[in-house]
Write a structure and sequence with these properties.
- Strands 1, 2, 3, 4, 5, 6, 7 and 8 form an eight-stranded mixed sheet that branches. Strands 14-15-19-20-18-17-16 form a seven-stranded antiparallel sheet, sandwiched between helices. A three-stranded antiparallel sheet has the order 9-11-12.
- With 505 residues, it is α+β, with helices and mostly antiparallel strands.
- About 2% of the residues have low confidence.
- It folds into four domains: 107 residues, Phosphorylase Kinase, domain 1 (2-Layer Sandwich); 140 residues, Transferase(Phosphotransferase), domain 1, CATH 1.10.510; 123 residues, Phosphorylase Kinase, domain 1; 109 residues, Transferase(Phosphotransferase), domain 1 (Orthogonal Bundle), CATH 1.10.510.
- The chain is globular, with a radius of gyration of 26 Å.
- The protein is built from 14 helices and 24 strands.
- The termini are far apart.
- α2 packs antiparallel against α3, α3 crosses α5 and α4 packs across α6.
Length: 505
């Protein structure tokens, strides 16, 4: 099969998001690169991925290629190149910059050493998150990251875009990447305490809020790695907590803007002019797997295992090539019901939005995979939500028959109920239908089983149609009391009510 012709660098400005791979791109005076995979794409602006670099003399080498095009390419190129040089000059572990140049009217390129078998800190963290049986792995990850940050700050630098995928592990060594986000106060001189605090806030805002319970311990790790810093004392913990909260709020707001638009995380498609007949949003990494389902969700629901049918919603488990997902169809019961729904976003959209929010806040839930809203000239009709399938039992079934035998319930499961309620209180979140059927037990096998239980795990919250985040403390407290009362209703007057009540105070 003949290979497509090589692209000029300037051609990437109109290449869009779906650049066909492998793709050959000519670099003026520097040979060419052939992209084998894309790690990050900003359509018409930036293409980053693993590539084969063919030099002008015919030599080849595997590289990490960053190609910058568009009307802002020159500015972004200078920023990337400057940041990469600052990291190298201050001896911060980072992939070597092999070559970089800018061609006027076409764009710029930076080719870095490719770290074989490297894994991002974000991927490492996800492997061990919510796994209490292996705390040492999480401690090592955090310790390595904080030590690298301390070294960066000691040289007067900080990473403005400090997300977990900008830290890469290779053979137990941690590297910092993405020079475009590197900023300098005075290179070679210790970063000021306020700027260091803010950068630490950016880092911790991406991790579980539960880590803030041990923030002083982690700050001590950072301080030891940074050496003597009289001006940067643990007494500034309140400031750091505040900075983390501010950065987390910024991240959540940014995510809420992304969940309905086409971006690196989601693929969004409007049906008709400006979505007059509907909208479809799917996680980009799930787009191919869910395409057939989203083309005809009703047929897949009919062929699936029905959990609930009729009324306001229909819920089914659907098998897709050996994988199960849950599809929830939000029905329009009659004309009167439609009059209460047509003028606002669907309940599917509420579940989609809040599911993504809970995941960002490290509160377990069924991962929302896709949403499909059908409309008639922008008036909302039937909507569909696709979620991951959680195979565990719900709390009502798991605790069934134990109302008068609370001691028979595994301590881990009771403690997990307390953790969930603590998380909801911390974030001022009310569920509005917090019954046992809406909590699913997600278990994980322990390496060293406890005497009375061989699993550890957490409760995942589902059915998020009416979930609400409260700004006012007073209104949240009222809503939380209703949630607590509804949760305990099934065991009213039993010994189990008292035991659980102690965990969900």
């Amino acid at each position: 099969m003949p290979q497509p012709p090589a692209l000029q660098l300037a051609d990437l400005s109109g290449a869009g998001r779906d650049l066909a791979l492998p793709a050959d791109i000519l670099l003026p005076g520097a040979g060419s690169v052939q992209f084998l995979s894309l790690l990050r794409t900003l359509p018409g602006r930036r293409y980053v991925g693993q590539a084969i670099w063919r030099t002008a003399t015919g030599e080849t080498q595997t590289v990490l290629a960053k190609l910058l095009v568009g009307d802002k390419a020159a500015r972004h190129f200078e920023r990337e190149q400057s940041g990469a040089r600052l990291l190298a000059e201050q001896n911060i572990p980072t992939p070597a910059l092999l070559t970089a140049d800018y061609a006027h009217g076409q764009g710029g390129w930076l080719l870095f050493e490719f770290l074989e078998d490297a894994e991002s800190l974000g991927d490492c963290w996800q492997k061990h998150e919510n796994r209490p049986e292996n705390p040492r792995a999480m401690q090592r990850i955090l310790t390595d990251a904080l030590r690298l940050m301390a070294k960066l700050h000691a040289q007067g630098l900080w990473q403005e875009d400090l997300h977990l995928d900008n830290l890469l592990y290779q053979q137990e060594k941690l590297y910092l990447v993405d020079g475009g986000g590197i900023r300098a106060e005075i290179p070679g001189k210790q970063l000021s305490a306020p700027q260091a605090l803010n950068n630490l806030g950016v880092f911790f805002a991406q991790l579980s809020p539960r880590l803030e319970d041990n923030l002083e311990e982690w700050l001590t790790v950072y301080l030891k790695a940074a050496g003597s810093q009289p001006s940067f004392l643990p007494t500034q913990l309140p400031h750091l907590h505040k900075t983390i909260a501010q950065n987390r709020n910024v991240r959540i707001k940014d995510l809420m803007k992304k969940i309905g638009r086409d971006c690196s995380l989601f693929s969004a498609k409007k049906m008709g002019w400006r979505g007059a007949f509907g909208v479809r949003v799917v996680r980009r990494d799930e787009q191919e797997a869910l395409d057939a389902l989203l083309q005809n969700p009703d047929a897949h629901i009919a062929a699936g295992h029905i959990y609930k049918d009729g009324g306001a919603a229909t819920v089914a488990r659907v098998d897709l090539a050996g994988r199960s997902v849950v599809v929830k169809r939000y029905n329009i019961k009659n004309f009167r019901h439609w009059l209460t729904r047509f003028w606002r976003r669907s309940r599917a959209w509420t579940s989609w939005r809040e599911g993504n929010r809970l995941m960002a806040l490290d509160i377990a839930t069924a991962k929302p995979l896709a949403i499909l809203e059908r409309r008639c000239f922008w008036l909302t009709g039937v909507a569909y939500l696709v979620m991951e399938y959680l195979p565990g039992e719900d709390l009502a079934a798991r605790f069934a028959g134990k109302a008068d035998e609370p001691d028979s319930i595994a301590p881990e499961e009771l403690a997990a109920v307390g953790t969930l309620f603590t998380d909801l209180v911390r974030e001022r979140i009310s569920h509005s239908d917090l019954k046992g059927q809406n909590l699913i037990w997600c278990s994980e096998r322990k390496e060293q089983p406890a005497k009375d239980s061989d699993t550890a795990g957490h409760w995942a919250l589902i059915d998020l149609d009416a979930l609400r985040v409260h700004r006012c403390e007073a209104t949240f407290r009222r809503a939380h009391r209703r949630d607590r009362k509804r949760f305990l209703k099934d065991w009213q007057g039993s010994g189990l009510e008292k035991v659980i009540g102690e965990w969900v105070a």
